[in-house]
Each structure stands twice: as C-alpha cells, then as structure tokens.
Amino acid sequence: MLNPLTEIYRDDWLLAVHKPAGLLVHRSPIDKHETEFALQYARAMNGGEHVYPVHRLDRPTSGVLLFARDPETARALGLAMMAGAVSKTYLAMVRGWAPEQGVIDHPLREEPEDRRLKGQEQPVREALTRYRRLATTELPVAIERYPTSRYSLVELKPETGRKHQLRRHMKHINHPIIGDANHGRGRHNRYFAERFGQGRLMLAATELRLRHPVTDEPLCLKAHPESSFLQVLAIFEGNDLPLPQ
C-alpha cells in the first residue's frame, strides 16, 4: 500500500510528515467506518514502532504533522504545546478581501467529537488568532449578488488550539475559508469544486516552530502546500505568492 505521508524531518525523538487533505490523523467516533489514518502510516515509517501524535490536523486540512517517537518526548511536547511554546502557521484562501492584518480574539464553545454530548452545554474557551493578508484577487464571476467575486490568501497564526479554531474565527470576521462545508459559504464552495474538479478545504499547515524537546535547539518544520491546494491558487495569477519552499 502506497504511504500518503511525506517525511519532512526525522531524528531519534521526532518524526514530522506532510499529511494530505482527506486523511484522518487517528480513529474518531465521528468516522467509525474509516480504516486509514495518518497514525498507522507514520508507524509504518517508524519501522512498525509506536509513534505519538502531539497535535492534530482536521481531516480536510493538509500540512505539517508532528509525531514523537517515545512517550517521554510526547509528554515534553504536550507541555510545550500547552505553554504556547510552539508556533503554528497556516495558509488559507478566504472569501472577500480580508483586512491587511489583525487579531481575532473571540472565545469559542467546545465542540465535542461524541455526537451524544452535542445536546449538553459545553464550556467556552478563550481563542486568539493573528492573521495577515498576503494577496487578493477579483474574478469576473457573479456567485452572490455582485457581478464579481473577491478572494484573499491569508496567513493564520493561532495562539490557542481550539477545535476548528481557524475555520470558526474566519467565519466570525465574515471571511470564511473556501471549501469549508460547516462554516463556509456553499455557493463559493460549489463554484471552486466545479471549476477545479475537487472541493478541498483551502487550509494548509505550512510551518511549525519549536525548541527541540531533547536538544533544546530551535526547530523549524516547513511543508510546501500540496498540488490540490496550489491548483486553486491559480486564481491569484500575476501575484508573486510568498509560499513556503
């Protein structure tokens, strides 16, 4: 079976990979029928030995995914994540022309994975995201009530790690991410799905910065967006897009 993960970095303690859109990180009560997970493919890359995911990417999000190769390193990385000592960077294509930069400080109610808990009141947690606009474009296509349609490419840096934080925060400022079935705009999602023959979520984790949990050296893990993401960015023709290499 072909392994869909691409190795980014490996040493005695860490394994970093690029996860494609559409692949679950691990088994979920929401997707009980699924049989393929990034976790099992990462284990295969680790010679069949256990690996420990230290953060998560939503199924439709592609990009950098980090695993620890032993429990002690996993615990150290978990503490670093909780302390805000790990910096994450994402690229997203959103509806409309987003402001040049800003901070979204908007608390979010927890979203339980177990459907049986969805009727129960869930706690509200602080959530903060910084963003920066990288490029804009305007298409001569009437999707809503205007004769043209505008889009932005933005860089997102979450400072908290709430479930679906980036997707919910961009909806909150009226610039939903293209391809987001739950928090986006259906007409725009359908336009891009029909134009490019695939309706992926236009969100990619492109960079992870941290201090190595064992050596304490600074570590920067980068992933170039996959081809399905870059294909849609063709709408920004003429822009010199600042994409990670």
UniProtKB/TrEMBL annotation:
Gene3D superfamilies: Pseudouridine synthase (3.30.2350.10). InterPro entries: PsdUridine_synth_cat_dom_sf (IPR020103), PsdUridine_synth_RluA-like_CS (IPR006224), PsdUridine_synth_RsuA/RluA (IPR006145), RluA_PseudoU_synthase (IPR050188). Residues 14-172 form the Pseudouridine synthase RsuA/RluA-like domain. The keyword tRNA processing applies. Keywords: Isomerase, tRNA processing. GO terms for biological process: enzyme-directed rRNA pseudouridine synthesis; tRNA processing. One of its GO terms (molecular function) is tRNA pseudouridine(65) synthase activity. It catalyses: uridine(65) in tRNA = pseudouridine(65) in tRNA. Its EC number is 5.4.99.26. Responsible for synthesis of pseudouridine from uracil-65 in transfer RNAs. This is tRNA pseudouridine synthase C.
